[in-house]
Amino acid sequence: MLSFYYPRLILFALVTVLAGACSHSIQHNEPQTLAIDTIPLLPADSIYFDLDLPRIAQQQHRLDSTFNRLVRLTGFNGVVLFAEKGRLVYQKAFGFSDVRKRRDSLTIDSQFELASVSKMFTAAAIMLLKQDGLLDYDTDIRKYIPEWPYEGVTVRLLLNHRSGLSRYQSLAHEEWKDKTIPLTNEKMIALFVEHQPSPYFKPNRGFHYCNTNYALLASVVERVSGMPFEDFMEKRLFRPLGMTHSKIYTMRNDTVVSAYIDLGVPGYDHRGWRPIRVRNDYLNGVMGDKNMFSTVGDLYRFNLALDYGTLIGDSLLKEAFTPGSPRHRRRADNYGFGWRIRGNADSTVYHYGWWKGFRSFFLRDMQQQKTLIVLTNKDRGPGSDNFWNIINDTSLSLYPASVNLGYDEKKEFW
């Protein structure tokens, strides 16, 4: 093969040299025009073809079919967002704000009570204080809440649900006599101080998912920062991340429980087949374990901050996704800092929420870089298996993104 090309290469070289010499002798005093100067410059967008566009279109069609089917079969009423590898693939609203009268259509900017999905934000607030050097995970919380009557409970144990503390809801049910008066975080602490209910077990002797843990963490944030919890969240999380539709609901200054919450869309529970708007409740005065209202778009902004480490440093953030309890054959999944950790996939974390007519789902597969967020304002609807099927489907996986892509569009697909 080499013998075939060798004479041709020599001939080409001679012709090139002679042509260059002639050109030099003829045009010695004339300006030179390079070949590249004659090529028109085109904007990158006019010649770039996104190889993912067909797959994204197929994903959108498949997701739209899935959620329309869930509307028909389960009465799904809510807003959904799916993203993969930095691309916002799909977001859409289904159903109504007024579920009972089927009016006031939901939008992608509709605000929902996140219920226990709020816990990941409370954990993020604690991590920010740790990042600031103002707090230590392994310090007894009595350093921050001196009147707390139980010893050996650390911030880390609260984060991992290993404190053994009993449920504040049960204590309040028995001891908070006037249910027309809001129960706040400070009043919750006072109930524990006064009545000292027996813990379920000694600190760090087991795992028990308990809302008391995250209500106490919100109080730790207040004591350490010197700011009301809702103000800290606004200043340190929502505003820096551009989460303009997110807010902590508080009854801090209320003397009476209002009839309904005047924030976001209303939630609905079913009595038989009939949806009933859920009234406000004295327990809604307690923050940290719930009481955050947000949108799918704002939650996706938080997701991007986790992906790109713009809020919390990587070493600290890694602990949020680290199992906090020893593996146990009867425990399918583990718990980090505000996130459940999928037992068969350590790179997959999630949280569900269910409270007073609202259900929420936040699923993240960090290895595949997939995120699915579903917010609903009904106590009935599709089960989580439907959402895991979306996360686990790899038949239309996207290529890695070449750049860090932000969330700056408001558009509804289909």
Task: Please explain how this structure is put together.
With about 425 residues, this protein is α+β, with helices and mostly antiparallel strands. The protein has one domain: 3-Layer(aba) Sandwich (Beta-lactamase). The protein contains 12 helices and 14 strands. The strands form 4 sheets. A 7-stranded antiparallel sheet has the order 2-1-14-13-12-11-10, sandwiched between helices. The N terminus is likely disordered.
**Strands across the major sheet, in which order?**
2-1-14-13-12-11-10
Distance from N terminus to C terminus (CA atoms, Å) equals 57 Å
CATH class: Alpha Beta
- Mean pLDDT across all residues, rounded? 89
Q: Can you count the beta strands?
A: 14
Per DSSP, what share of the residues sits in E-state strands of 2 or more residues?
15-25%
SSE sequence, one letter per element: HHHEEEEEHHHHHHEEEEHHEEEEEH
The radius of gyration over CA amounts to 29 Å
The secondary structure category is: alpha+beta
Indicate the overall shape. Answer: globular
Largest sheet geometry = 7 strands, antiparallel
CATH topology title: Beta-lactamase
What is the share of helical residues? 25-40%
Architecture, according to CATH? 3-Layer(aba) Sandwich
Uncertain spans: 1-28, 44-48
The total count of helices amounts to 12
Oligomer classification: single chain
| CATH homologous superfamily caption | DD-peptidase/beta-lactamase superfamily
- The tally of domains stands at 1
